[in-house]
Amino acid sequence: MTNRLHADRSLEVARALRAAAAETRSALEASRNLVRRSREQSLFAAEQMMPRDGDSGPSKHLVECLIEAYEAAEYDADAQTRLLLDHVLQHVGRRIAGTIGPRATGIAVH
Length: 110
Fold this sequence. Notes:
Layout: H1 2-49, H2 60-73, H3 79-104
């Protein structure tokens, strides 16, 4: 009788281990898919940020003037001016990022 109980318990443990292994395989596959999609999205984003038609990015003088204008707008009561300068700086920042690329700025790309 104890042999039968031991055998039943062993089968039960084996089933549980098989189920755990199947769940682990499923989780690993899902993780691989997430990593693959993340890499594809990162490559796509990097391609979108690449300079087009010889765009060398904005001049240093332009960037400095925009930063000064943005800082001066902090004291202006017109919220639309601040918002407009915020959008302009974001656009210029994207151009700069596209020109120099993520690796040059120290951003890890997988």
